[in-house]
Amino acid sequence: MEAVPRNPVETELTVTSPEQMRELGLKLAKLLRAGDLVMLSGELGAGKTTLTRGLGEGLGVRGAVTSPTFVIARVHPSLGDGPPLVHVDAYRLGGGLDEMEDLDLDVSLPESVIVVEWGEGKVEELTEDRLQVQIHRAVGDTTDEVRHVTFTPVGERWGTADLGVLTA
After folding, report:
1. DSSP state, 18?
2. Containing H/E element for 2?
3. What digits encode the pLDDT tens for the residues 6-53?
């Protein structure tokens, strides 16, 4: 992985394989704690679930982390003393937190790490502190595995986090 400085707030990395994306998730897991919201965005097949799989592995949670597209949300309890991982795919949901209310994310957030794929415009009201992760990939008829991952911290919690550990 190669780090590219963008501005003092964002961190951008280049990832060249699914294994590196999973490893990035492992590194990010070291920064996460109960109460954290991570929003993932990117094209279909960009690597959002692969990154989350690494997060789950790094957090030491039970169960295989797979795309929750059809069930909307999966809860992966911790196998140790860490927080559970709540993995949400909001792709098929409309806008606003109201539609996601049945998922009780606001109740789960204080004791869990919540990762939401396709959450823009839907879950920002959950907390003022979140880490937004944008994954860019080449689109169209290509087998290109290169991904450009941009981490944008929002709020006090993430404004003080050392995202530099992701480039190590």
Report:
1. H
2. strand 2-5
3. 445 799 999 999 999 999 999 999 999 999 999 999 988 899 999 999
Digit-coded pLDDT (tens) for 55-104? 999 999 998 888 766 667 788 889 999 999 999 887 766 655 555 555 55
Per the listing, tokens 């990939």 go with 137
d(CA 126, CA 155): 12
Tokens 């003022």 — which residue?
128
* Amino acid in position 102: D
Q: Is 80 left (phi over 0), alpha (psi -120 to 50) or beta?
A: beta
For residue 109, give the DSSP letter: G
pTM above 0.90, yes or no: no
Give the span between the Cα atoms of 84 and 58, in whole angstroms.
Answer: 12
Locate 40 and state its tokens.
Answer: 């993932």
